[in-house]
Amino acid sequence: MKGLIIKDIYCLKKQITTYGFVIFGVVAVAIMFILSERYGNLRISVSGMEEAGFDIAAVVKIAVMFFMVLPLISTGDISNLFVYDKTASFYKVGASFPVSVKKRVLSKFLTVLMFFAAGLVIDILMSAVMSVVSDIILFSKCIGTLASITACMVVFTSLIIMLNYAGIAPAYSTALPIVVFAVLFLLVKIKDIKSAIINDDFASFSAFFHNLINAFENKPYYFLIAAAAVAAVCYFLSVFFADKKRGVA
Amino acid sequence: MAETKNVIEFKNVVKDYGDFKLDSINFAVPEGSVCGFIGQNGAGKTTAISLLLDIIKRDGGEVYLFGEPVDGKHHHLREDVGVVFDEMGFHEFLTAKQINTILKNVYKNWDENEFFNNLKKFSLPSNKKCGAFSRGMRMKLQIAAALSHNAKLLVMDEPTSGLDPIVRNEIMQIFREFEMQEDHTILLSSHITGDLEKIADEVVFIDGGKIVLSGNKDEILEKHALLKCANDYADKVSDSFVVYSQQGTYGSEILVNDADACRRLYPETVIEPSTLEEIMIFYVNQAKSPAKNA
């Protein structure tokens, strides 16, 4: 199994340059956002929206957090592993190894967790730096947020891995969870979206963002428990699908 | 006399893809032998090998490897199997050195020194991305890996197809050296029967998902022969001997399955030894036109 993890690490190492650019870009954009919100055009252009009940500080905070977690998100491009394996026809070679189907599947999950751990370390370092230069970002709150977002990423990638083993093409297996989450969001928030578009009423949206940020910052354990449960279910389903097909790496 | 131990056994194995079926196949490969697995493209060789390596699930029958069932639970058996596929299977951005790092963490008996010695022997660079390798080099890289974990069985799926005769000869030499060691067995699938004729002890001939012939190569070659005669004489040859008959302008060529009997019964004809390729072609033709040659 260790050999398969090493193979996956070699595969993902190919993305290391992209990863470097992402981190560099993220730091630059996050700083620009904070400065713009405090002194620049962002504050001026959205002042009207603030009067309509839109909390610009919360939005900026989410935007900055989003940029900050990009390094973490970019480590989650697990579908590439399946694409690389398929392109090389590695599934035949991998399946001929003296490694059980369970361990082959487990190796994919462990590789992802290892990359998340690396992304998390980078994000924690970035949070420490950002919390020094900005009063929007508090380091203690960041840790909670990062843990929550890591949990969300674990859910997202576990679904991707499972869908790949189920035989869904890598491009669709990445898009499918996003589409499902987006549709769920739209269904749950359809009233608020209508009221924001028709009545220019952003109050409920603002409340939603506050609640979301609050949950991310202060209740990461909910997300972590959910992630562990989803990952476990996805792992067992992946083993089931892989065992049905056998020829998996 | 000690009983022969079979390293590979297929018992009534079925795999149904809908448009293709491996139909209740039976064969065995004795320990210490080189078994040539022959058949045209699409005959079912790769499917059978995939079943042996547990890459795909069978729909019926039993497959045994080293006497133990291949059932998804005995993955440890593959510790002793070196595998070479028709495609390299390793990612093109990997170097041989990186492949070594991967495989030494896969196989318990991985011998790093042996691997690098093999690379040297096959003139393969260890730091070059294998995507830049020629087809011959890619096959050699797979063979180098297959020979570096003390495998007792080499399973190879069309390892020489698409290679020039010089490289093919080099590769056959490597197989000979492997086979010379005690208890080493080779299952070599190929449609290039000339290669197999040089090296195989046993032959399994598959066509359309069915085993047409299997057994000792020399016996198969001795039993079969090409009987050449005038077209009007061809009907005199008993149907029980005829595998397939093809008529030409200057006469008929008949593959017969009992060369000695035919020599005795039809002394006025020319009876020449047949090659594995001829045997394969005539049997395939027979399958294509069963009404005429059954």
Molecular structure report:
The complex is a heterodimer of chains A (249) and B (294). Helix content of chain A is 85%, strand content 0%. Chain A starts with a helix and ends with a helix. Chain A has one domain (2-245). Chain A is mainly alpha-helical and 249 residues long. The radius of gyration of chain A is 20 Å and the shape is globular. In chain A, helix 5 (56-74) crosses helix 9 (139-165) and helix 9 (139-165) packs across helix 10 (170-188). Chain A has helices spanning 2-13, 16-39, 41-45, 47-51, 56-74, 79-87, 90-95, 101-133, 139-165, 170-188, 190-199, 203-218, 220-245. With 294 residues, chain B is of the alpha/beta class. Chain B contains 10 helices and 14 strands. Chain B has helices at residues 45-52, 96-104, 112-121, 135-146, 165-180, 193-199, 217-223, 259-265, 276-288, 290-293; strands at residues 6-16, 21-30, 34-38, 60-65, 68-69, 81-84, 153-157, 185-190, 202-207, 210-216, 225-229, 242-247, 252-256, 270-273. In chain B, the strands form 3 sheets. Chain B has a 6-stranded mixed sheet with strand order 6-7-8-3-9-10, with helices on both faces. In chain B, helix 3 (112-121) runs antiparallel to helix 4. Chain B starts with 5 loop residues before the first strand and ends with a helix.
Percent range for β-strand residues of chain B: 25-35%
Total E-strand runs of chain B: 14
Count of helical segments of chain A? 13
Succession of helices and strands of chain A: HHHHHHHHHHHHH
| Quaternary structure of the protein | heterodimer
Spans of at least 5 consecutive residues with low confidence of chain A: none
Main sheet characteristics of chain A: none
Strand content of chain A: under 5%
Q: How many angstroms separate the termini of chain A?
A: 10 Å
Rounded radius of gyration of chain B (Å): 21 Å
Q: What would CATH call the class of the largest domain in chain B?
A: Alpha Beta
Give the rounded overall mean pLDDT of chain A. Answer: 77
**Ends apart, CA distance between termini of chain B:** 39 Å
Largest interface, by Cβ-Cβ below 8 angstroms: which chains and how many residues each? A-B, 29 and 32 residues
